[in-house]
Amino acid sequence: MTKTSTRAADAAVEAAIGLVLAAERAASDAVEQAERDASAQVEEARGRARAIAERTERRIRALRAAFAARAERVTAELDAQAAAQDAASPPSGDDLARVARAARALATDLTT
Hints:
mainly alpha, 0% strand, rod-shaped
């Protein structure tokens, strides 16, 4: 091999090594960018999950409050109806005796 061909071969090897090093640097940069992108996506997803959880909690609290208010309103209406019914026709002695017998029978069933 002549000096010229040796120099040409050396230059080709150096150019190839340079290309490999550049490709390795580019690949390393791409991996780092992908990691940054993935981290950003994870943080966005966590933020969205927190927002969903907060919205869900607010909705659940609102539903519970609405249910409690409705239950209170319906209970008050039923209590008013029962009071009106008792006032219009109070229970008779026979009614009270039947209730007492039913309570004793239930107590017996529950304790035996």
